Amino acid sequence: VVYYFPNHVLVGCIAGIGVFLAKTGMEVTMDAVLSNLPQHMDLIVVVFGFEVVLRGLDMFLRDKETGKPLYSLLSPIYFCCMTPIFYIGLVLFGMDVQEAREMGYFFPSLEGTASSSSSSSIWNEDLIDMWRVLDFSVISWEAILDAIPTMVALVLFSLIHVPINIPAFALSTNTEVDMNVELIAHGYSNLISGACFGLQNYMAYTQSVIYDKSGGTGKRSGLVVAAVTAGLYFVGPTVASYIPRCMAGTLLLHVGIDLFLEGVYDSYSKFDRLEYGSVLLIIIVMTVYGMDAAMLAGVLSAIFTFVAQNMTYIDPIRGSMSAATLRSSKRNRNPKARAILDAGRSRILVIQLQGHLFFGNMAHLSKSIHDLMEQGSGGSSGGSGASESPLIVIIDFSLVLGIDSSAAMALTKIKKVMKNQYNVELSVFVSGSTSGFPTDFDLSKELAAQTKATTANGNGEHQRESLDLEPQETTGLLLDIPARRRVYFSSHLEEVEAMIICGSHVSEDLDTALIHAENFLIARHDSKLLHDDLSLDSNHKALLRKSSSLSDEREVGLKYLANLCSRDGDDNNGVGDTSPQLHHQLFARFRRETYLEDDFVWKQGSASTTIKLLVRGTLIAELENEAGTSEIISAGNSIGEVGFIEGVPRLSSVRCVTEDAVVYSLSRESYNELLKESPHTARLLDLICIRYLSARVQHVSNRIFETRCLPI
């Protein structure tokens, strides 16, 4: 809990302690409450005089360049000199000590309360009277029970000092502290004190500040202070009666003014208006009502400041953009599908949220989303600009730190508004984490509601109805997830062709969200085009199984290679740069290889001697020098083309993660032969490499977090 105290709360406590010390210093000097100040001005004038002189010396004896004090022991030496100076003053004014004591300039002597000088010592026959007169038979246990709440409050009040004093002292001295070590030290100290029938103790902030300003550092000086304190425990009451009140009053007043200036003056430019107002509030409350009330005021002001700052300074929407220049990792699509995406990506709106989403900024978030939808729909949800309105909205929560229940409920309403008022057919919500959204509210379930739109019926209309599928099934329905897709699609093939997933969907990352949106656009135009991407043939069967023939396998491999080589607008029917003849010539140089689960295709740093085309199975690429950085490689993708073309070592390790995997490999020797025999055909590998790099640069994860990164 200690680490959750904001700096401005600690600074307010420091300044409040300063006011309290200054007030205490004057009351100690007068031996009366502050309201009696006019009747004791003669005592206060002495304190003010000593304080003014000390302030003057402190300002004069400073380094002109740095402004730091030249002598760290100035204050301690000055306070030690106050007592002899005061006695000299008494002699000069012709006043004896007894007269000064009667006028209130000294603390009362213990001799006045005892008949013998021996009784003035702490060690006398009365020391253990408490234990002699203790009689358990006459104790009122009812009174003790009534006092327990007060004792608990006192204990809690004492416990407050540790989490306040230590961070405040660390802030004043600009040092780092380990609260665990400090708390353990306090535990041992109080354990020993309690075992010796002592009192509860904690680090005193005021004395610690004086100790630090006096140049005290290290264990040696700390042991000296402990030894002197132990000595004063025995002789202190006697010595105190010979010390003038003005010394204690000046000490408390000086430290109090220092702390007050540190909290109010020095911090003026370090906090904004809300935080500085909280500092002043804590000072006032501590001065009037005490430490407990000040701590409560600090907690409430910290909460209010946090809410107000998040509402004022942090826009819940980090940015928004069309997906026209964004690309997913699903880059191996056929030319017709790519043409649909090139024309339709502009109707995908990506909104990225940030910070904490809570009741205080949800009204602003809702209004901002309404404004974005209005801009995209030409000013109205049903206006003439509706053809250019967003068809798909992706809302990214990757940078969201927390969501309260009010915000979660408001988000479900926003989802419904986008669908009903702005005709958004698909809303994709990106949690940014495998553990879901940062809230206890079951937001994933609320946002994952699905509907389906069937193909046109006999009247040429689209029918919509509820789709009763589990969330994980709807996730696998249109996304390219190799581990599940063959099992799922074998039982839902008719649904894949007959319907389009609408409503809303939850994804773990932006890439899968964009893949889902792209699949939606393709299926909305022509659901049969998804057959290639989902590895289905026209007879609704998985293209490749373990039992598939070698000719079927090579046919699929050739199809994958054609998709990789084809350019936008090319339908693979011409005789140009990417004609089928060139694809056949290139694929003829590839040789079949098989890998079992956990087999390495290559390891990071090995020589780039081949380029491989994954035809069946799933691989994973991992960076060995980065914890957890990996990427799934699904069927239809090539690997190793960059290292192969540039001749650099492998940048990642690649291994098989399915039962088996089939790849077709082109060796460097075969490539060199092809380069001599048919340079035009070999150039296709350059096109594959360029397309890969272009997809990498324009990948959604590279551009959505830093909008200054331009597409190429």
Explained architecture:
The chain is an alpha+beta fold. A hairpin with a 7-residue loop joins strand 11 and strand 12 (630-633). Helix 1 packs parallel to helix 11 (273-289), helix 6 packs parallel to helix 8 (205-213) and helix 13 (335-344) crosses helix 20 (510-526). The radius of gyration is 40 Å and the shape is elongated.
List the helices and strands and how they pair.
Blueprint: H1 7-30, H2 41-60, H3 74-92, H4 97-102, H5 129-132, H6 141-173, H7 179-195, H8 205-213, H9 218-240, H10 245-264, H11 273-289, H12 291-312, E1 317-322, H13 335-344, E2 348-357, H14 362-376, E3 392-403, H15 405-420, E4 426-430, H16 443-447, E5 450-454, E6 464-466, H17 471-478, H18 482-489, H19 493-498, E7 499-507, H20 510-526, H21 530-533, H22 550-565, H23 580-587, E8 591-596, E9 600-602, E10 610-616, E11 619-622, E12 630-633, E13 638-639, H24 641-646, E14 653-656, E15 660-667, H25 668-677, H26 679-697, H27 700-703
Parallel strand pairs: 2-3, 3-4, 4-7
Antiparallel strand pairs: 1-2, 5-6, 5-7, 8-15, 9-14, 10-13, 10-15, 11-12, 11-14
Helix pairs in contact: 1-6, 1-10, 1-11, 1-12, 2-3, 2-10, 6-7, 6-8, 11-12, 13-20, 14-15, 22-23, 23-26, 25-26
